[in-house]
């Protein structure tokens, strides 16, 4: 039997609908409009698309969008000054600096200059520490989106064996913390893990976040397991014509879907949830800033 396909595009629309409802209620009862500032440095084509989509979806949810597009040669000092300005702006509840940044800018320095309460990416060292100690924090968008899809599919995750392949600060580590918070038994695996295939086969929930196209084949997947594929890799697609490309995940979808119980596709799986969770985090940040109850079902 082939796996159930977890439709991240459809689910992200549901999440964005809930955000829009929360925003409308905030406006109606308190006259407050959440605001999200997105900062892009340079002309990376993929980043330009993501930033455009973030701005568009922010407005569609009824929030205010502030876009700051800076030249690739912008200095670190000037970028830090902009972050300070946004930190002090009461109309801005969330700040996001699109990654990657140009090489001459220290990304950690910039991220840690964002006011933690406005850090809707959840990358600030304070939020990392709060999440790691099980306290209320801003949670990174991609892992939060994965958690929402898993909760929606399974109900309770308690007691399940979860394997996260990948140990990045942005996805692998926070994903592991979130699964632990939902009482999974968590293993973080990576390129040096011994018997990676065997470790993956032990997973009831397998999260692939290694950034290597189609690295995880179907025979590494336990029958009936839920597979969450975080990878977004562009590979040549000669079948579509010369020079054409297509997107694939870190999992070999065609073989994995024959073994898994449920699986996210690429595209249309985790990716759309990233922006939906950014909007959810902005609403959460705005509620917290105003001492109001947080929206239900949109936080970890
Ligand atoms: N400050 C941040 N920078 C980056 C983040 C982030 O969360 N915060 N994540 C990525 C890029 N990203 C959002 O910024 C992002 C990536 C992919 C998608 C998405 O919807 N992907 C689609 C496919 C898109 C395509 O056709 O190319 C999908 O998977 O279906 C949304 C957001 C790095 N930078």
UniProtKB/TrEMBL annotation:
GO molecular function: methenyltetrahydrofolate cyclohydrolase activity; methylenetetrahydrofolate dehydrogenase (NADP+) activity
GO biological process: L-histidine biosynthetic process; methionine biosynthetic process; purine nucleotide biosynthetic process; tetrahydrofolate interconversion
Top-rank taxon, per record: Bacteria
Recorded metabolic or biological pathway in which this protein acts: One-carbon metabolism; tetrahydrofolate interconversion
Residue stretches making up the Tetrahydrofolate dehydrogenase/cyclohydrolase catalytic domain: 6-121
Keyword Iron-sulfur attributed: no
Residues that, per the record, bind NADP(+): 166-168, 232
Catalytic activity: (6R)-5,10-methenyltetrahydrofolate + H2O = (6R)-10-formyltetrahydrofolate + H(+); (6R)-5,10-methylene-5,6,7,8-tetrahydrofolate + NADP(+) = (6R)-5,10-methenyltetrahydrofolate + NADPH
Keywords tagged on the record: Amino-acid biosynthesis, Histidine biosynthesis, Hydrolase, Methionine biosynthesis, Multifunctional enzyme, NADP, One-carbon metabolism, Oxidoreductase, Purine biosynthesis
Listed GO CC annotations: cytosol
Family assignment from sequence similarity: Belongs to the tetrahydrofolate dehydrogenase/cyclohydrolase family.
Protein's job: Catalyzes the oxidation of 5,10-methylenetetrahydrofolate to 5,10-methenyltetrahydrofolate and then the hydrolysis of 5,10-methenyltetrahydrofolate to 10-formyltetrahydrofolate.
Subunit structure: Homodimer.
Protein name: Bifunctional protein FolD
Originating organism: Psychromarinibacter sediminicola
Organism lineage string: Bacteria, Pseudomonadati, Pseudomonadota, Alphaproteobacteria, Rhodobacterales
